[in-house]
Amino acid sequence: MKKDFDAVQLQRDIREKLGKEYEKDPKLRAKRLAAIRKKYGLTARPKQYVSR
To answer: Are 38 and 32 in contact (CB under 8 A)?
Structure first.
């Protein structure tokens, strides 16, 4: 049975494509994230580490 739209496969394809792009240019991911944060007025929260 063939699905008309397979969201899982689409997500895997996108992740694979972006992974290859970021492998070629590691700084590209940070650059894109910074642009998204600026566009939507978001700030990066500092990482919170849980002590065990």
So the answer is: no
Q: What distance in Å separates the CA atoms of residue 22 and residue 32, rounded to the nearest whole number?
A: 10
Cβ atoms of 22 and 29 within 8 Å: the answer is yes
Q: Which DSSP string corresponds to 1-52?
A: ---S--HHHHHHHHHHHHHHHHHH-THHHHHHHHHHHHHHT--PPPP-PPP-
How much is the pTM? 0.63
Taking the C-alpha atoms of residue 40 and residue 32, their distance in angstroms, rounded to an integer, is 12
pLDDT, tens digit, 9 for 90 and up, residues 1-42? 677 889 999 999 999 999 999 999 989 999 999 999 999 998
Residue with tokens 């689409």: 10
